[in-house]
Amino acid sequence: MGTLHFSLDPNRLWLVIATILVLVALLYWNFKWVEKRKGLFFILRLSIYLLLIFLLFEPVRTIEEKPDEEASVAFLIDTSSSMGVKDPISRFSLVKEFLKGPLLEGLKEKYNLLFFTFASTFRRATVEEILRSIPQGKSTDIGQALDGLEEELRGQRLAGIFLLTDGAHNVGRDPRLVTEKIPASIFSVGVGNPREFKDLQISEVQVSDFVFKNTPTDIGVNIRSYGFENKEISVILKKETEILQTKKVRMPEDGKEVSLSLRFTPRSTGSFNYTVSVPSYRGEISFANNRKDFTLQVLRDKIRILYICGQPSWEYKFLRTALKSNPSIELVSFIILRNPENISIVPENQLSLIPFPTTEIFTKQIFNFDLLIFENFTYTRFGIPKKYLENIRKFVMETGGGFLMIGGDNSFARGRYKGTPIEEILPVEMEEVKGNIIIDGKFKMLTREARHPILRLSDNPGENSQIWARMPELDGCNRLLKAKPDAIVLGIHPLIKNKYGNLVILAVWEKGKGRVMSVASNSTWRWSFQARGRGGTGAYYERFWHQAVHWLVKSPQLKLVHLNTDKKTYAKGEEILLSIRVFNKYYRPSEHARVYVELVDPSGKRIDLGSISPTDRRGEYGTNYLAEREGKYTFTATAWEGSKVLGRDTAFCKVAIPSVEWENAQLNEPLLRELSNLTEGKYFHISGIESEKIVLPEVKEVAPVVKRVVAVWNNPFIFLLLCILLGVEWYIRRRSGML
Amino acid sequence: MGQGKFGSLLVIGIVICNLLASPLPAEQRDRFVFSQLRYKGGDWDPYPTAYKEILHYLMTTTSVKAQGARRELSLNAPELFFSPFLYMTGHEEFPPFTRQEIENLKRYLSCGGLLFIDDASAGKNLGFDKAVHRELEKLFPHGKLKRIPPDHAIFRSFYLSPRVVGRRVGNPYLEGIDIDGQTVVIYSQNDLGGAWVRDRLGNWLYECVPGGELQRLEAMKLFLNVIIYSLTGTYKRDAIHQPYIQQKLKTRKTAP
To answer: Which of B20, B40, B98, B37 lies closest to B71, judged by CA?
Structure first.
């Protein structure tokens, strides 16, 4: 039934007293004027008023549940994957045997048996369910299981807790800290074979998320073993299927870790899967922990630039200084200090000149660079055959290299590049050689497409325009015919035009796999020297050229398509969220692109996800994919604008079962003993528990626990009683002719 | 005044204007321009024709294209920042530069310009040398002239290790001041300019003492190296050149 008490807020007591006084006055006034049946009316009205006063004090009833007379014994059964280990008999089959054994029969007579299972989650179960189940839990959280048990059985008379597990706790709170609130003794039952335990584990791999191309990289590996003491083990490092390194290591005593370092030098940029593994030996309890996979992003170390300059010039000096000031650039340059027609009045050994290695450069070395710059350089004077220029074309179109031609007397048509493979890759068409194709005179280049990353000297468009407006004049330029159809014109001459429009000064385009830029004047050094001379800064000059270099070598930050997954590792059955950002060739978010995503799943099967819808953010597209298989997934997004591919990007992710369950799957007797000791219980091994005499301690009285608080004043029957009393008075008055 | 007189006056006026105007058009494209500092007092131009010989030699022996005319500049001239190479010479002491001139020169040197100072008096602690030290002290209060080591890029920019000589040998070394790894002031006390002067018949005007014509050749080589250094910076310090340079130096040492 519970106990009754009042929950009136003491601060409102004055209100109740005032109400009582009013009701007493009303009572006196009412019956002053009543002539018939005074006694009856008095009793009715008094009852009503008393009931009202009672309700004003907000009575509540507290219902306490008394514990069952019979005490319970709880069984916590570990159903995590490690309970499926056979050492040599399946651990879970031993548990099932235990549940069918005589010990439980004996306990049933005296106690109420309650069963629960746990792995990564905790829940109530029946013996029949447990006997039918397979241990598949992805992790073992004994702490959570004890927590859950305490909450579930709070207030009940608990005689003891049997914890059947291998003790391989691997996630969540330390179970020893939870034992403080456990109201009963824990009888830990260790399941697993501590003696015939064999396992070789890669316990840890230490590596950064990214490394640099051509830079030796060290990976730290920790290995733990059981049953392999003093044995020499081979450790193998692989990239995808390629073996990078093999190292032998001698294992220490059981349970101890040995550390070693594996070194390799990545030779190409991109995202790759690596594996560290040890051999699998017969009898090991788990092979899953014999390897660890990880993904590494290999970034380019430095941008390698080959700069060939036809004569010493201020353009060379300032551009060289700007490029060399960037630590991510490695610059190799050749300046033609002397032409064939120049005379020498001293022997060769008094000159610091070196031979210009044309064959070496144009047949081999060129492919080791990311960007080739020609400034005021003509190939004709140095016996360079046209076929070497074909290599430059291949370098750009087939290997994705960048090419930059800077103007001067020996550039473009004056350099005899018309009709050569260089003309094919340039974004501009050249005038014929005859005629005045070098234009004298200063001019301020007008920018076009100021959002292009090469011209973006400030992220604020207004400020960017002002910066360009203040740039010093250039001095002279090559006369170019026009930009080619797919080229992007970034700068023009403000005054001089031909039939195609203003003369092109700066143009870029994508050609094959590479990118090309043409600058019709070799006087951009003025943007530094003169700008600073006027009290300005040379920083914009440097920024312009750094951005040009990064664009030409396709630095990742300047891609037009960016594909990302929300995580790098997923569990099986989890959804992979893909987001794609698309920019058009002017580097504005592209809202009208058609985006397609294709993936290669772990089995190598190609799956077409089709067209991807835009999100409500400009230039962004997104989709999900349910990862049902374990392994590496490779997603490729391609964005189209019209009939042209804007760009492509690739992202990798991995779907793996959480490996925590297999990192340390041996029977953890020390933990189980400690849990029992902390709760005045006892530890048994499952193989010998039947023969043990288990005495459960006397159950302590459990303090009653408040279960429910019921508001009496809020009860509809009280309201009904009030209505009845009022109704009876009304009826009597009416019958008495008083209404 | 008759028409004839007016016409003569007009012609004279036009000639005077042309004489007063800078002989060099402002457009230079990618040409090297020999800029010489015109300063107040002293004698800023002891060898008015030397630059012609220098430029002729430059264009004959190297791939450099140069403007034929010299640009004469004061430190307040707007064209100061049209040419990152500035030549200064003289025999005599000169008045201090103004504060604005010092500011302009400081900015010139820190922006990528190079000042080549050539003491034509070839004498230590004489008028010009004293004035140079005085002005450099104002330009670089915390930096002093230091000897330029023999393996500096100046000595490898075109000719290999030319001797540090001029018309005379005041100091057998160059001195310099660096900013951010680049030498921005080069100081010679050997009257390099004097080695270039010819008379009207094309003969060398001044004898080079004590080494004669061989010394003159070394002076010419050094001057050329300074110009090429101003155009190429530390190019010759790049790793790709070192094996060749070391090989040539070895050959020179062992040559009979």
So the answer is: B37
